[in-house]
Amino acid sequence: MLRLNKLSLALALGLVSAGMAQAGVSSVDIDKAPRQLADQTDRLIVKYKDGSTVVQGRLGAAVQAKAVASDALGARTERLQQLAAPLGARMALVRQMGTGAHVYKLDRSLTVQELQALGERIQAADANVEYVEPDRKMYPMFTPNDTSYGSQWDLFDTTGGIRAPAAWDQATGTGVVVAVIDTGYRPHADLSGQIVAGYDMITSTTVSVDGNGRDSDASDPGDWNSAGECYSGDPGSNSSWHGTHVAGTIAAKTNNALGVAGIAFNAQVQPVRVLGKCGGYTSDIADGITWASGGSVSGVPANATPAKVLNLSLGGSGSCGTTTQTAINGARSRGASVIVAAGNSNTNAANSNPANCSGVVTVAATDRYGARAYYSNYGSVVALAAPGGDVRSSASNGILSTLNAGTTTPGADNYAYYQGTSMATPHVAGVAALMYSAKPTATPDEITAALKSSARAFPGTCNQCGAGLLDANAAVTAIKGGGGGGGGAIAEVEPNNSSSAPQAISAPVTVNGSMAPGSDTNDYYRIVLPAGKTLSATLTPASAKDFDLYLLNSSGSTLRSSEAGAGAVDSFTYTNSGSSSITVYVRVLYYSGGSGTYSLALGW
Questions:
Q1: Among the options 39, 146, 154, 182, which is catalytic?
Q2: N or C: which end of the chain has fewer CB within 10 A?
């Protein structure tokens, strides 16, 4: 896995032979040495208070860049030069971002700590400066293992899979664009017709390695690097074709007698190239987020096909910067869901960015058996988990998707198993595309709530992995019948007789269930209650039946109860007064009266 700054890269690469008649599989050198990426950058982001203006668009507020007089910029640049002089660095204005901030390039790299201190001096010297932050580099979050073609257990396996086949009976992603904000893409037979026009957002020719800066060609020329090229002690690496692998998981063609199946195979992928040799800058990634979601970026043509889902299988260390958070806020205001990787450091995702940004859906990774993958980050910022694979025992336990056989520059079409939260993230992005195709009017918050409330219990151990394991069919069902979408009726699904194996549902909804003495005396329902919402629950039993109603928190403590007599209706309300969503459990308990049915109405 590649990570920013102090995070290490652990590549699990293997030598394999061709395994498909349609495409070869390239060989790669084994490289098990971890990478310690230098905590440095040669760019600084400066936001002036008069450098941008907020405009009201059709889907809400969006930040739009506004030019600042060249003489004012010249004076400001000179002031920055004076402040940077004690560090032995000179600065030059590169461009203005879509968020209105300005990007400055230094003539040498400095540590993030040095640049943070410089930013404090800049803000102290100029009251017109809104914020300053280092333009950190981010990297693809993956650990690849190249092997021959095998089954896509992650889609259909009853233990660790996402149950995609059942979801395809309800939705296939038609009409939805998913932006893959990554290394770009390689044309591939299994992606033919699946790609809409994207953009290359990389401004540095050193990073882009395609001989130019920003342009409309989002194809991936390769991100390989020689030993010592990215940082001291760097062993070098082959090209990852990371964005192509992610794109295949989301929307590879299906029923074409070739290769692999995509989760949302009737959706389209919009490649937005932000990562290249030695990673990519935060400023380019933020502009990619803005443009992909339909926002305005100076010097870049308007996006004719804005994406409803943004996949960011990338990240680095540190807190979520203002630059990234502003871009995410703008994307959400334009109606786009932002799905991000939790990170592969086996540590708390609160220290991984953009996984720790507000408003995103942060995804942890599970192995083939539904347990947390050994590398996956975890923590309270994680929304849910999805298959990311674990190739240590077998390459076929990774995630198979489209790739390219070139070790440096592009070669033939290929398929390979990779592992990482980078692979888990497009599973959620693909399911989000299914959900938007099933309910085009859904909001990002509704998509997030339905993803979490429909997640199923982990088959294995996955502590601090969010609401549960991604369930494609349940998520589509939830967004069609609940998640703020007007309600509907569903049937109770057994077994749901304990809090460790509840039925996941999304409100508003009415559940039609039944109970019997001795054999079925408890029914549990798990629901995600958004911040500020008040859950109302009403239990109506069949005539002369006595069933009681309870609300429990995630530790099993009773929050509310209603124990009315035989034939009477039980009800309660409960308000989530916190600042984030919580998971609660509604329990229906048999008391007396014999076997019978009930209806449980839940809403907020």
A1: 182
A2: C
The CA distance from 489 to 589, in Å, is 20
**Shared domain check, 193 and 164:** yes
**Could you please report the per-residue DSSP string of 400-463?**
EEEEE--SSS--SEEEEEEESHHHHHHHHHHHHHHHHHH-TT--HHHHHHHHHHHPBPPSS--T
Which of 423, 444, 474 is a domain's end point?
474
| Residues 72-97 pLDDT 10s | 667 778 888 888 888 888 888 888 88
Question: What is the SS3 assignment for 86-114?
Answer: HHCCCEEEEEECCCCCEEEEEEEEEEHHH
- Same-domain pairing of 19 and 145: yes
**pTM here?**
0.69
Separation of alpha carbons 185 and 201, rounded Å: 13
Residue 88 lies in a domain: no
Residues 288 and 423 in one domain: yes
Per-residue pLDDT for 55 more than 80? no
Shared domain for 299 and 378, answered yes or no, is: yes
Set 188, 242, 245, 427: catalytic member = 242
452 and 509 in a single domain? The answer is no
Torsion of CA 326, 332, 334, 339, to 10 degrees: 110
- Its domain, for residue 577, covers 487-603
Helix (H) or strand (E) holding 193: none
Shared domain for 462 and 492, answered yes or no, is: no
Do residue 340 and residue 465 come from a single domain? yes
Nearest CA to 168 among 157, 155, 158, 159?
Answer: 155
Query: Which tens digit of pLDDT belongs to each residue from 357-368?
Result: 999 999 999 999
Q: Does residue 268 share a domain with residue 244?
A: yes
CATH code, domain carrying 571: 2.60.120.380
Encoded amino acid at 552, one letter: L
Active-site residue, 242 included: yes
* CA–CA dist 196, 56 (Å, integer): 27
182 is catalytic: yes
**CB-CB contact of 178 with 433 (8 Å):** yes
Asked whether residue 72 is domain-assigned, the answer is no
CA 501/CA 454 separation, integer angstroms? 13
Our answer to whether residue 592 is catalytic in this structure is: no
Domain total in the chain: 2
CATH at 14: 3.40.50.200
Model confidence at 9: pLDDT above 50? no
- Using DSSP's 3-state secondary structure scheme, residue 65 falls into strand
- State the Cα angle at 114 between 110 and 119, rounded to 5°: 110
Q: Give CB contacts under 8 A, 24+ apart, made by 205-212.
A: 206/277, 206/278, 207/275, 207/276, 207/277, 207/278, 207/279, 207/280, 207/281, 208/273, 208/276, 208/277, 209/276, 209/277
Q: DSSP assignment of 471-491, as one string?
A: -HHHHHHHHHH-SSS---EEE
Is residue 65's pLDDT more than 50? no
Contact 314, 181 (CB under 8 A): yes
